[in-house]
Design brief:
Layout: H1 23-40, H2 56-59, E1 63-68, H3 83-98, E2 102-105, H4 114-123, H5 127-143, H6 160-174, E3 176-179, E4 184-187, H7 188-197, H8 213-221, E5 226-236, E6 241-243, E7 262-271, H9 277-282, H10 291-301, E8 303-313, E9 316-322, E10 333-336, H11 342-346, H12 357-360, H13 366-378, H14 382-386, E11 395-402, E12 409-414, E13 426-429, H15 435-443, H16 491-505, E14 508-514, E15 519-520, E16 533-535, E17 541-543, H17 581-584, E18 585-588, E19 597-601, H18 615-620, H19 631-638, E20 651-654, H20 661-675, E21 688-690, E22 694-700, E23 706-707, E24 713-715, E25 718-721, E26 724-731, H21 743-750, H22 752-761, E27 769-770, H23 777-788, H24 810-828, H25 832-849, H26 855-865, H27 870-879, H28 896-899, E28 904-910, E29 913-920, H29 926-935, H30 937-943, E30 948-954, E31 958-963
Parallel strand pairs: 1-2, 1-20, 10-12, 20-21, 22-27, 28-31
Antiparallel strand pairs: 3-4, 5-6, 5-7, 7-15, 8-9, 8-14, 10-13, 11-12, 16-17, 16-19, 18-19, 22-23, 22-26, 24-25, 25-26, 28-29, 30-31
Helix pairs in contact: 1-21, 1-27, 4-5, 21-22, 22-23, 24-25, 24-26, 26-27
């Protein structure tokens, strides 16, 4: 560490108090120390080996890996709400350094994404150019806050040397399968060996060697963890792209542009995350995450136990999953989702004899009816299709299925209230017990059979009911077939009995179902990671060898996808990459012994989630060009240890909005890499903390349009803009709402340390809180008082008293050590607001006592402030005569003798009413406390000679006397 003293170069400002702590002085101090930290590598966290190896003493310390969620470099820059989490992790990281840890804390950029591509479409600016400009601006804004990041470890997901490894991980997943018996991923080569040796039978009989290359590829595709399939998607011809569910409005139109959105099938890449559903659920119990986030993940995965039931149809079958197999006798019809692949297979050319007019939709043939209904359903969003209040629609497909428990022929319908995304995309409809089925049955004149005895007095005749009756406590009825009877049983026992019968007869089996669907991993975009996949002349997918990575994005002239007639549902996407003929069609030697061959590249790109699925690993070993991460380095920072059974990052801070997708995807990738032996950590993030949101008031005029918050005046409790009264409502902060305050503004007016203190003092970190620029000055004054307690404002020289601690008065020592004890506990628990309150209390005590502050007190006060306001602490530490940076100094430790109060107040009650208060020692025994209470004059008077039946003592704070 350099012996340079930047404080010696501080300029003198001429005013009434030339050395007062002002915004100008803060700006000069902060810029100077930021330059010093960068030059000295103050925040460099050494690895145990490799190009980032460093101080062995630091490596030998306990490690702490502290992370923020990846920021996206927006062109709008930061407002004061954005740095909340970054400041919090910085404070915590600084505290950990001062308590003897080797701390890894850095920040990169999640830089692929739709905003940059949309900007490119509008302006012709390459997404990389706008993204890099945005990153440069954000780096500047964050640097001004004094964040202690190890800058050697920073990167962006758009760096080819980064996404080389994103592509490599994709190939590991592509070349893997999940072994249900071993409960882990294994290389696909091991599955091939099983097929080849006969250890595993080839479906349909035959041998592996007899299969063609295309047949082998199709078979392996049924097992691969990354696979291509025809998947139902939200296709928007007007935008020329596929949309995520979140981008489709409730009325089935695109959120951007308001174009119609249709359900369509496209060949897409998927990740078989469903294979890990049980492990993703079970391992949540070992993570230190907020319970609300765990619950959201559990609900998203949606594990439910029930039964698989097969309904025969003309020698084939429709399989359903139900959590209530006990209601099987009440199934009077079936419904397939419009997208179900069996719809076409079971739809005959003509209506069966006796088909009701209400079932046909007015069409001459089942084929016409189904086609028309599918087109109608394709224009609706999943949200709209699932709406409870909507009229139930559907058509009979012209086929009947056999209910396996009673042999009844039940009609099969196609209806949009059933989705392919849950279960099997088919349901057995029990209208007596499900409201949607009840409404559908009434609309289509279908039978409703009571199979659960109502307990609400409605009777057992469904024709008199106004709604379905669903209960988990009622008795089963009308459910017997001669082989099995459920009548009179409770639901739990009935489920067990019917499941046993289904398994015995081969009509079904007990099973577990998950709401979780495989992860759709394709995007029809330009600005994303290219897939390291090529196709041969037969359409078979081949992975690129690792030596050909990274596969870089080519230059294109047009970043926009091709758009079509908004109402033409039969169109298909044309991606920007597909128009680059020289890049798409290539001759390559893949090293498989076949020599050079002609291939077609995959022209979709990976979703923006890909790069954020593994970035914690790149922070560990960011310059490694030979491995994803060195195993020893990964083990050091993220390996399992006591308290971290699955390993992972020690602290991960970010918004609760990423509760499901990002966290679930990252966990999935970690588990695959763990199974394949590439990492020792089966979980990416051990401890998760969700910071709250900084909110701001939004002011709207009579038209409902937001007006600039800075121009609003308050008069007599009302708010005015340009003389017009406006409404005020607390909400998000943002440029579009005209209420954004930038950190640059606050830093210019008060300094970064003041901004840091204010954001940490606003309230508990996990709670949302309103921004109030007028309140920022309070923390600025705290720093001014701190400065005055150490520095003479007129001379700039130290104003502390060089005395020994033994010469410090007892009250000040008590205030000091109580503050040390409280601040240490609060910083460890991330209670930054109460830590600042304790620092303020100590600072105010010193101001009140007056006179020069004793050096032992002043030095420890500066150390207490150092994690929170690092620039001013660094400056004062040098002024106190120290040559090493305060960043790596030891955090003060309290003397227990001064932390314990000399006396505490004990309340004495008689019949529950307070009669006296005693000042006693905190260590007083129950016996002595009882004697003191009974001897007190006020207690004796209150008893008035009455006997005592019982005395309850809770030393040292309570004595309760019960008279006889």
């Amino acid at each position: 560490m350099s012996e340079t003293n930047p404080a010696a170069t501080a300029p003198v400002t001429a005013d009434a108090a030339p050395h007062r702590y002002t915004a100008a002085m803060a700006a000069e101090i902060e810029a100077r120390w930021q330059d010093f930290w960068d030059a000295e590598g103050t925040y460099a966290a050494p690895n145990p080996k490799g190009d980032l190896a460093g101080d062995p003493e630091l490596v030998a310390r306990p490690k702490k890996f502290i992370m923020d969620m990846f920021p996206y470099p927006s062109g709008a820059g930061l407002h004061v709400g954005h740095p909340l989490g970054y400041i919090a992790t910085d404070v915590f990281a600084r505290f950990q350094r001062m308590t003897g840890h080797n701390v890894l804390h850095t920040l990169g950029f999640d830089a692929f994404g739709l905003p940059a591509e949309q900007y490119a479409v509008q302006t012709g600016t390459h997404p990389r150019a706008s993204t890099e400009a945005n990153m440069k601006n954000m780096v500047s804004q964050l640097r001004r806050l004094g964040l202690g990041h190890d800058k050697r470890r920073s990167f962006a997901t758009i760096d080819p040397e980064y996404y080389k490894w994103t592509q490599w991980i994709f190939l590991q997943i592509f070349n893997s399968w999940y072994d249900d018996e071993a409960k882990r991923a294994r290389p696909i080569s091991e599955l091939v060996a099983q097929f080849d040796s006969g250890e595993r039978a080839v479906p349909g009989g035959g041998t592996w060697s007899a299969l063609t290359e295309a047949e082998r590829a199709d078979l392996l595709g049924e097992y691969r963890l990354a696979y291509a399939s025809d998947a139902p998607v939200n296709w928007c011809p007007g935008l020329g792209t596929v949309l995520a569910n979140e981008e489709v409005t409730a009325d089935g139109r695109s959120e951007r542009g308001n174009f119609p959105v249709f359900k369509s099938k496209l060949r897409q890449w998927n990740m078989r995350i469903t294979a890990y559903a049980d492990r993703l659920l079970d391992d949540l119990d070992q993570l230190d995450w907020p319970e609300a986030i765990k619950l959201q993940q559990r609900n998203w995965i949606g594990r439910s136990e029930g039964a698989r039931v097969d309904f025969p149809v003309d020698g084939e079958r429709i399989t359903v999953f139900t959590t209530r197999p006990d209601t099987l006798f009440g199934a009077t019809y079936m419904v397939l989702a419009p997208e179900h692949p069996l719809v076409e297979k079971f739809t005959p050319a003509a209506w069966p004899e006796g088909t009701r007019d209400a079932w046909t939709g007015g069409h001459a043939t089942p084929t016409e009816a189904v086609a028309a209904y599918r087109a109608q359903a394709a224009s609706k969003s999943d949200v709209e299709r699932q709406a409870e209040a909507k009229d139930k629609t559907g058509v009979f497909i012209g086929a009947y299925a056999t209910n396996p428990v009673n042999g009844e022929q039940v009609p099969v319908f196609v209806a949009d209230y059933v989705l392919m995304g849950y279960g099997t995309g088919a349901i057995m409809a029990v209208p007596a017990g499900d409201q949607r089925d009840f409404e559908f049955a009434r609309a289509f004149e279908l039978p409703i059979r009571c199979i659960v005895e109502p307990t609400d007095g409605r009777g057992t005749d469904p024709s008199t009911w106004e709604s379905a009756f669903a209960s988990y406590d009622a008795k089963i009825m009308n459910s017997s077939n001669g082989e099995v009877s459920l009548d009179g049983l409770g639901v739990v026992e009935a489920k067990e009995r019917i499941t046993e019968w289904l398994e015995r007869t081969g009509a079904g089996a007990g099973t577990v179902n998950f709401r979780l669907r495989d992860w759709l991993f394709s995007r029809q975009r330009y600005w994303g990671e290219p897939f390291p996949i090529v196709y041969d002349e037969d359409g078979i997918a081949h992975p690129l060898p690792a030596s050909m990575l990274p596969l870089e994005l080519p230059e294109v002239e047009d970043y926009s996808p091709r758009t079509f007639d908004p109402d033409d549902a039969d169109t298909k996407p044309e991606t920007p990459l597909s128009r680059n003929e020289d890049w798409v069609h290539v001759t390559l030697d893949l090293g498989d012994g076949r020599g050079p061959r002609r291939y077609r590249r995959e022209t979709n790109t990976m979703p923006n989630w890909a790069g954020s699925c593994w970035y914690e690993l790149r922070y560990l070993d960011p310059h490694n060009s030979e491995q994803l991460v060195d195993p020893e380095i990964e083990q050091y920072w993220m390996g399992p240890r006591e308290g971290l059974p699955h390993g992972g990052v020690d602290l991960y801070v970010g918004g609760a909005e990423h509760a499901v997708l990002h966290l679930l995807y990252a966990r999935f990738w970690s588990k695959v890499l763990f199974d394949l032996g590439h990492v020792s950590s089966a979980e990416p993030f051990h401890k998760l903390f969700n910071q709250g949101m900084i909110q701001a008031y939004v002011y709207r005029d009579g038209r409902g349009i937001a007006v600039p918050a800075a121009e609003v005046e308050e008069r007599d409790g009302a708010y005015f803009h340009g003389g017009e009264k406006v409404s005020r409502l607390l909400g998000k902060m943002g440029k579009s709402l005209k209420n954004a305050v930038t950190p640059d503004e606050i830093c210019a007016e008060y300094g970064a340390d003041t901004l840091r203190l204010y954001e940490m003092a606003m309230g508990p970190l996990d709670v949302s809180r309103p921004w109030d620029t007028r309140a920022v000055v309070g923390q600025f004054r705290l720093l001014q008082r701190l400065w005055r307690n150490v520095v003479d404002e007129n001379t700039g020289r130290l104003s502390v008293a060089d005395v020994a601690e033994t010469d410090v008065d007892a009250d000040t020592l008590r205030a000091l050590h109580k503050a040390i004890d409280g601040v240490r506990q609060d910083l460890e628990g991330m209670r930054f607001n109460t830590a600042i309150a304790k620092v303020t209390e100590l600072n105010n005590h010193l101001t009140k006592v007056g006179g020069p502050v004793p050096r032992p007190v002043a030095e420890r006060l500066v150390l207490l402030v150092a994690p929170l306001a690092p620039h001013v602490a660094e400056e004062l530490w040098r002024k106190l005569g120290h040559t090493a940076s305060v960043v790596h100094e030891d955090f003060p430790v309290a003397d227990p003798a001064y932390v314990v109060d000399e006396t505490v107040t004990c309340v004495v009650q008689i019949k529950g009413k307070v009669k006296a208060r005693l000042e006693v020692s905190p260590s007083v025994s129950e016996e002595d406390l009882e004697k003191a209470a009974l001897a007190d004059e006020k207690v004796v008077a209150a008893l008035g000679g009455a006997g005592i039946r019982k005395v309850i003592v809770r030393a040292p704070k309570l004595v309760n006397i019960v008279p006889a």
